[in-house]
Design goal:
- The chain has 411 residues and is mainly beta.
- The protein is 7% helix and 22% strand.
- The chain is built from 4 helices and 16 strands.
- The chain has a 5-stranded antiparallel sheet with strand order 3-5-15-9-10. A 4-stranded antiparallel sheet has the order 4-16-6-14, with no helix packed on it. The protein has a 3-stranded antiparallel sheet with strand order 7-8-13, with no helix packed on it.
- It is globular and about 75 Å long.
- The chain starts with 6 loop residues before the first strand and ends in a 7-residue tail after the last helix.
């Protein structure tokens, strides 16, 4: 297989790294339960220095507000990102740890077996899906084995396409300080986390992360399979794929006549984000799959022990850690600033439509669902679309769900 908030506690890990522990932030929305479908708690936010760490965003909000990573993302499409609701991780090793209200399970019945999606502000350069403005972050996940609701259990790595078999071989630390008279970065002291947004931040600290290879240090990430490729050569990291406009059910292929539009018959402008941003894109195929909100999807089964590379064999995860995996400046002479991951949200993948009776997952219960169910009637097994109640068999109980909700439209 290819595989509203406030900072409440400040503590120092060792002598250098600053951990911001935030109060649990509940994200609610109309319609579907957003606290279930999206990460809803920030457990840690420790950015590395970066050009956006102390700066306001386009709408006056700040790139350093970790609550921007909670709840559903705000999509800008493939040509440019919507940066109104993202949080920057800064340079190498910049970190955010998020939690879910309940466990994200490894579910083989999810589309393509994928379990979660990381959303960022990546976009395609000149509309070409094989050339991307992509600032990659390594994904790590952890199960709350001890049940205390804190991310203090072992972490496992999603190695993706380009980390070594044992990722710990590329794990390293990076020192930072705010003294312009030392050789320690950053060169631009204005990038160092500072008041009023980071009161009490130390004068020196370190970050740590898994370093991705030189392919990821380029200003534009080009598909190693070529500019006309249909198969992705890079996958399994956050920050690779665009977040589509809400309701753009057409997907995206690089065709300017169809991408980034909400006027196609199948499009659903205004649909609940928990319906749209929980359908994964195929990470191995160039472009964004129709019906998906984009982002970078992964399978929990890809997780490995960072020391040995052995499969983690996790049944699910409760916490996700994203760390910038690149130590580089973009553009000639670094004119575009550091390559830094900006997080827009993390979602669980949904195996079935949240609308009872919606067998084909298009958000409406109609004759198509009835026909699908009748075509599978009497069958038993896993992951049958007509098995609406998940009991392993398509029968009269499932038919009753279709009939009871016939004509209901989630949109």
């Amino acid at each position: 297989m290819q595989p509203s908030h406030r900072r409440t506690v400040r503590t120092f890990a060792g002598v250098s790294a600053l951990v911001w522990a935030l109060s649990a932030t509940v994200v609610a929305g109309p319609g579907l339960d957003h606290t279930h479908w999206f990460a809803s708690v920030v457990h840690e936010y420790t950015p590395a220095p970066g050009q956006f760490v102390n700066l306001p965003g386009a709408d006056g909000t700040y790139f350093n507000d970790p609550a921007a990573a909670l709840g559903p993302p705000v999509g800008g499409g493939t040509l440019s990102a919507d940066n109104s609701a993202v949080v920057t991780l800064g340079g190498f090793g910049g970190t955010i740890v998020l939690g879910f209200a309940d466990t994200v399970w490894d579910d083989p019945c999810n589309p393509m077996g994928l379990d979660a999606i990381v959303f960022t502000n990546a976009f395609w350069v000149s509309g070409n899906p094989n050339r991307r403005w992509a600032e990659a972050a390594v994904i790590e996940i952890s199960r709350d084995v001890n049940g205390n609701g804190l991310p203090d259990d072992p972490w496992y790595v999603i190695p993706g396409s380009h980390l070594p078999a044992a990722p710990s071989s590329v794990l390293r630390t990076q020192a930072w300080d705010n003294d312009p008279n030392t050789p320690t970065p950053p060169t631009n002291i204005n990038w160092y986390p500072a008041p009023p947004h980071f009161p009490g931040f130390p004068d020196a600290y370190t970050t740590q992360g898994y370093e991705l290879p030189s392919l990821f240090t380029q200003s534009i990430l080009t598909n190693p399979n070529g500019l006309s490729a249909t198969v992705e050569g890079v996958w399994g990291y956050g920050g690779l794929s665009p977040t589509l406009l809400l309701g753009d059910m057409s997907g995206a292929t690089g065709n300017s006549a169809h991408d980034n539009r909400l006027d196609q018959p199948e499009d659903l402008p205004g649909v609940d984000p928990a319906f749209f941003y929980t359908t994964p894109d195929d990470p191995f195929t160039v472009g964004v799959s129709p019906g998906s909100g984009g982002g970078d999807a992964f399978d929990i089964a890809w997780a490995v022990d960072p020391e040995t590379g052995a499969p983690a064999n996790l049944d699910g995860f409760d916490f996700i850690r994203l760390r910038t995996g690149v130590d580089a400046l973009a553009g000639p002479g670094g004119v575009l600033g550091e390559i830094s991951m900006e997080v827009a949200g993390v979602a669980r993948v949904r195996a079935r439509s949240p609308l009872a009776g919606d067998a084909n997952g298009d958000g409406v219960v109609d004759f198509e669902d009835l026909a699908l169910l009748l075509g599978q009637f009497g069958q038993s097994g896993e992951c049958l679309a007509g098995d609406l109640n998940g009991d392993g068999v398509v029968d009269f109980a499932d038919l009753a769900m279709v009939l009871a909700n016939f004509g209901t439209d989630i949109h």
